[in-house]
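Quick one, T. Sequence first:
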Amino acid sequence: YLEVHAKNKRSYHSDLDTVKVLNRFFAGKFLHEITPFLVDKFKTERAKEVSGATVNRNLACLKCMFNKAIMWSKFNGKNPVKGIRLFKEQQRLRFLEKEEIERLLRECAEHLKPIVITALHTGMRRGEILNLKWHDCDFRRDIIYLYNTKNGERREIPMNDTVRKTLIGVPKHPESPYIFCNKDGRPY
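Structure tokens:
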């Protein structure tokens, strides 16, 4: 699973940690011995050690492992994680105070300030910002077009004056379409 499926994923290191946890609990079991009851027992025991959100990530990884095992014909049965209810997760919503924003910008390296300002004023994700290209920005209409989003849907992000001035102030690399790139033209 780790070598074939997870190796090139952004979550590789967390998957690696999860597999270690799963190995501890399910050690010595064949896939057909891992039942929904045993998965529920894992969920209960794991919740004594970590948050519900972490348990949910562990279960999601296990579910994915079983789905891959089924797809690769390594397991001929039903996914035992499929019917397991996940823990409710609290979404924490917090905004930076004005003083925190000022301190953050003061502490930023110069090349990071435009990235942080863009994030603060647009709410864009890190990957969306770092993959931003000049042709994605319509400076006449003050709109940033995002084509490669987390859910795969195109989004339009309005630019306020601060974002507009910040992006226009970023030096353009002569051979790179990326706004935020290193001296070789590759995105950060």
